[in-house]
């Protein structure tokens, strides 16, 4: 029996739901001509000198025009964001929102060095990396070709992107780097004796 779309929608945890809804609304606004991609990308000069303060937000919400590629990105985003929010962040909505905020700030700081105007895909890759490291024993099947455990997922996706596209997957690597920094300081470093149990990235 099919689940009504509104039931599925409200079953999605709040942060993931708001993220996906924002992305869908931005794509719809571009599709209908209400705005265009040139008004959405991140640019330091436009933000700080022309006071276009929406750009640090819309850069994470635009995944391209409505179409098959957009649907793929939304599936990818909602799947891993939801599994994180319902998994290791269960009952900790503010912690999950804080993790997304820190990841977004990190990607904004990196973006001028790689000339990447839209950062939604790298942020989604950050979520994939964190989820994969926190679920090391889960087996995954890629296109029915081979089975591997979750920690290899980001690298499998990275290799697949490299095969399909002629350009180097800089955004994917940015997502992996930011995800690894968060994972290290939240999951690895506090367990080290030298850390004294301190968590530098904990929610204020």
TrEMBL record:
GO terms for biological process: cellular response to stress; proteolysis involved in protein catabolic process. Keywords: Endoplasmic reticulum, Membrane, Transmembrane, Transmembrane helix. Coiled coil: none annotated. One of its GO terms (cellular component) is endoplasmic reticulum membrane. It is a multi-pass membrane protein. The chain crosses the membrane at residues 18-38, 59-78, 98-131, 143-164. It is found in: Endoplasmic reticulum membrane. It comes from the Eukaryota. The keyword Transport does not apply. Its main location: endoplasmic reticulum. PANTHER family: DER1-LIKE PROTEIN, DERLIN. Belongs to the derlin family. May be involved in the degradation of misfolded endoplasmic reticulum (ER) luminal proteins. This is Derlin. It comes from Linnemannia elongata AG-77.
